[in-house]
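ERR on first pass: missing label on line 2. Operator R.T. fixed the label and resubmitted. Corrected input:
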Amino acid sequence: MDTPVAPSRRITIVDVAQHAQVSTTAVSKVLRNAYGVSPKMRDRVRQAIAELGYRPNAGARGMRGQTYTIGVMLPNIRNPFFAEILDGLTDHLADTDYQVLLGPGCNGRDAEAKVTHAMIDRSMDGLILIAPISTRAHLDHVAATVPTVVVGRHGRSRAYDSVADDDFAGAALVVDHLVELGHTRIAHIEHHETDRDCLAEMPNAIRAAGYQQAMRAQGLADEIDIASTSYSQEGGYLGTQQLLARPVRPTAIFAGADIVAMGALDAIAEAGLRVPEDISVAGYDNTTFAAFRPISLTSVDQAGHQIGANAARLLLDRIADRQRPAAQVKLSPTLVTRRTTAPPPTS
Amino acid sequence: MDTPVAPSRRITIVDVAQHAQVSTTAVSKVLRNAYGVSPKMRDRVRQAIAELGYRPNAGARGMRGQTYTIGVMLPNIRNPFFAEILDGLTDHLADTDYQVLLGPGCNGRDAEAKVTHAMIDRSMDGLILIAPISTRAHLDHVAATVPTVVVGRHGRSRAYDSVADDDFAGAALVVDHLVELGHTRIAHIEHHETDRDCLAEMPNAIRAAGYQQAMRAQGLADEIDIASTSYSQEGGYLGTQQLLARPVRPTAIFAGADIVAMGALDAIAEAGLRVPEDISVAGYDNTTFAAFRPISLTSVDQAGHQIGANAARLLLDRIADRQRPAAQVKLSPTLVTRRTTAPPPTS
DNA sequence: AACATCTTGGAAAACGTTGCCCACTCACTC
DNA sequence: GAGTGAGTGGGCAACGTTTTCCAAGATGTT
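pass 2 clean. output:
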């Protein structure tokens, strides 16, 4: 499969040209499927490439043309939902010449800026930014430099395409499900975003807004009860402690993310209550562990695979035509009901 | 923070040289902290760089020197254990000029070859391969081309450094723990590796061997019972079904990986048995979800963070000196006991 | 005072690829 | 038979760095 010993000098396009008795220009054209190559020439060059095991140097290509590299920025590699998106991405890009490279865990704006810059420095042909928390100014700047698709963040931009799930509708799915089971005291744990700049664009804010709107639509405006912590296990734990300390305890908790629900389950167990007999819990993201039998968490499933596929498609389109007007794709979530939600206690 | 509108042309080293009234050579020297630059010159160039917001083009750098990029290949982005390693890596590399880029989910040898080649094509300065399943020949070939560290795979190579956890000892930790609780009928679910080429180097094989050795050491050679499936939820489910169908049921199951334990819990629940009252279950990897309260899985913790940090250190050393003899680092796992293991039923 | 050595800075040639442009060969058309 | 246009192939100059020299001045050594 591979030559046993690595050649001391890497094969270049010049070697291929010599071996095939043609110009480097011709080889380059074949490599890029460019216009102006006869079938005979193409075959000859292809054979020389195969015989020598030639592989183009991406850095050198990038200096004049493309690097055939797409950078993906993930905020948190631990969230399996992002893996889902990534699968959609890579599946869609598998048949192309593009190679996907991931920027590692970017928590915070500085880290995001570092990674986006690093990708631009490496002449990547396109960027996919998943749930970025950077300022709009930074995103617009990035998108002005390189074709960019932003995933999981609401708000339109003229500079970049975006793909997002309808978090507003997703929140309503949870509220409606709980109401249908008979709940009225439905509380929500949100991620408290301090930055007002991009507040309105973040999924957590949309989920909280969707929760409130859905409660009002159900005639439960007075029951709206939000604990503001963070999308983390600890945030869920603390938020739930707050909610359980209310004079009138909620009978259901809608956690803004599955990991938050994990913290909620902790706090509920510590308080000596049972799920779902005493209190129902729902999450968001339908992460892998939500399906594990001991957890069996009711959760909102975002079509991660489709999100990724759409992002890839938009990015390829934009690489092909940078002037194309920006597109926004919004996908619909679905509710997966499991064993953490049930009718409220009758008492 | 950033210029609001992206400049039409990117700032190059020539711009910096002109602005600072020096040669491009001088700028290059400052960039690389190379020898032969007076403090005055350095300050002047640094200021010009800051004023213009210059960032070096990595592709161009790579053509002559380094790209300051380290590629990490992860087999499966969903396994939180790998995220742990990654954290150790990035923490250790945070203070350096190197940027980490991840190759996305590589399942299978072809995918691994594709990613490693892509990284080499991009002139990366070093590679970290996590739990690769490629042939030794391929690994040696890669390592001959670019500094490489292999993580989570046993077996020495002269071509690359390696970091691994002592899976043999980890398996013994589980067996000894279960024996201490009073178990004797301790079964194991392993990942069945068909490829004999790298069989002996893979962690799953070492764990299975460690299990057998520990059982013998405990005088339980006759109780050795292995279900050969795969390291997946389904593998755990099927393997457990096999084990539960035995004439004499095991009282404890040692799953070779946490995800396998999840499948085991499924099958056990379906069989109407309780954990840990009727049967104990232990996993391996101490993944994030193992700690979630409803799961509370006893598991073997590999010091992922330290593994990553060691890999980064070895790689930097090797980049600095490619002739250095290859090193092997072996770390010790620890057992985290939770609520899925308990004394066997007294009946 | 002559010579060797170190320090500092720059000119120019790589590195491997692509884009631009030109030249040549064939049909085909008027 | 000259002109036209499409189809092919190649020469050469980028692209943005680093590296390898070399020169000039400063400093030290006999």
